[in-house]
Amino acid sequence: MKVLLAGANGYIGTRLIPVLLEKGCDIVCLVRDKRRFRENSDYASRVTLITGDLLHPETIKDFPTDIDAAYYLVHSMAQANDFSDMEAQSAKNFITQVDKTNCKQIIYLSGITNDDNLSNHLKSRRHVEDVLEAGKAKLTVLRAAIIIGSGSASFEIIRDLTEKLPIMTVPRWVNTKCQPIAIRDILFYLENVLLNDKTFGKTFDVGGPDILSFKDMMLTYAKVRKLKRHIITIPFLSPKISSYWLYFVTSTSYSLAQSLVDSMKNETIAKDHSINDIIPHECVSYEEALRLAFIKIEQNSIASSWKDALNVGYLNPAFMDQIKVPQNGTVEYKVKLPFKQDTGKVMSNIWAIGGNRGWYYWDWIWGIRGFLDKMVGGVGLRRGRTSSVDVFAGNTIDFWRVLLADKANKRLLLYAEMKLPGEAWLEFKIVEEAGKKFLSQIATFRPNGLLGRLYWASMFPFHVFIFKGMAKRIVSYEQIPVQKAAN
Fold it and tell me: Which InterPro entries has this protein been placed in (predicted)?
């Protein structure tokens, strides 16, 4: 069967691809930029890529007409304040394309919407269902509450809060009930509704066996991690204060924090259990889902992370166009350091930069810069890394986005997502000249007017110490080898 996947670079889409390949599907992935797709993954050569932005239908090229089914896994809730309009328009443009094909079924992953007075987020999900249902193909909707898995937004937010705050004063929404579900169970349902005619034209609630409050989930997380945590509920915290609280403590953007807080007033508990009559399946418990997530984290085998999705970033979707570092109108700071250490070791240190490893030198300065970035609405340092050992184009590393991770040419290129009066690139490269090895490290800044030039001038004294110190530590850092799990 031939299956189209919209949202292939997202958290769910990335994990669904190998599941569908194992099922024997011929997969066509609709992506905005082929360069961002992980071409060095195990399945890259086994899928067909077509390009297009569903918000700009004129960009969609080579949409196949012979597809049997299509997954719609596109969400925009963190991209802008008008995300509901964007989601509706994206779905309409998708239906326009699919209606020209032989597609029999569209599968959409939505949110549980059994409450009255739905949040804007859940209203938008419900409206997208209505838009997709108007198409010629039969619609199958899976409605889920929060999804728990390594790299999922819900898991990472619970992790941020519980790991960092021994005592939490929290808003009253922590007592709202929901029915979390493990990522493996979501993938099971997404796989098994595919071209299952018993699911055509139907909507199903899916959830794990546990009904918990957000407070329960944080305390269960603490139990699994053997942490002592105390949670104090403060009923008068406003939604705006709650949003800022999430924004500063976790790795979410402020717009995403607003959407999440708005949604947390709604209980998301499965009421329709008819999926069990069609696809019998025993979902894992919330506690077991946490344990499975940590197994992936400890093995450095996180397949995808919500932080890497562009709809939670701060860049234009065409950010990969910045892969060519400009030469004109820019200022630079260069470090070129000779070294005698093993090239592979130095490469590993470059590839491990950021996240838990840190930036090798004066991490406290990087921490202050991250805090200041948060204060002005930026991303800060809290996003960390998806994996501590691997990095791919499109990944995030703290407040940088990876443009290029070219092991063959020993080059790592980062593009800044922090708030700046201009644009910034940071490049690491190992070069050989006259039989000697050098670590080349170049910070490039394209200032935006006078403010940008003043910013660069004020930061230059710090760059002199930070970048020289960082280069010296990269070539000398002794790491403990990590055994990577087989996929």
Answer: ComplexI_NDUFA9_subunit, DUF2867, NAD(P)-bd_dom, NAD(P)-bd_dom_sf
